[in-house]
Design goal:
There is one protein chain. The chain is mainly α and 144 residues long. It has 5 helices and no strands. 76% of the residues lie in helices and 0% in strands. α1 runs antiparallel to α4.
Length: 144
């Protein structure tokens, strides 16, 4: 099946969000290391941040593949759940900025943009053109 325009747009927005999120991760890596090493249990676990980053990248690539290349309804709903968590994190960030408990910086702005791109990408999974892409209830190839 030829990929619908909605799926192509989803893919572009999804990768844009991933790239921005990777930039934010690089920008905040030192802060994250400081937080991890400040925790006594994790102080010597220098492997933990790179391991979780690698797992995150693997999950991102798998979800992309099973939504944009080999459609899976399960992967679609996992993306939806992660987009909802992303939206929740964005609302929390905006709340922290509004109350003054967080500082507006480049990383914060880029993270908010990445969250918005991720949610926008997810919306494309529900456009009418995407329905046929995820429709697995067709009778093609079914044995009677």
């Amino acid at each position: 099946m030829i990929r619908p325009v909605a799926i192509v747009r989803y893919e572009r927005l999804y990768w844009a969000a991933f790239i921005l999120d990777s930039v934010v991760t690089a920008m905040t890596w030192t802060e994250r290391e400081t937080i991890v090493t400040a925790t006594p249990i994790l102080a010597k676990a220098t492997w933990i941040l790179p391991t979780f980053q690698a797992i995150g990248i693997a999950v991102t690539v798998l979800l992309w593949y099973f939504t944009a290349r080999a459609p899976s309804v399960v992967a679609k709903w996992v993306v939806v759940v992660l987009a909802a968590l992303s939206a929740y994190a964005a609302v929390q960030s905006l709340g922290a900025l509004a109350t003054g408990s967080a500082i507006l910086g480049t990383a914060t702005v880029l993270a908010l943009i990445a969250n918005a791109l991720y949610v926008a990408a997810t919306v494309h999974l529900f456009l009418p053109a995407s329905k046929a892409w995820f429709d697995t209830d067709t009778d093609e190839g079914a044995v009677a």
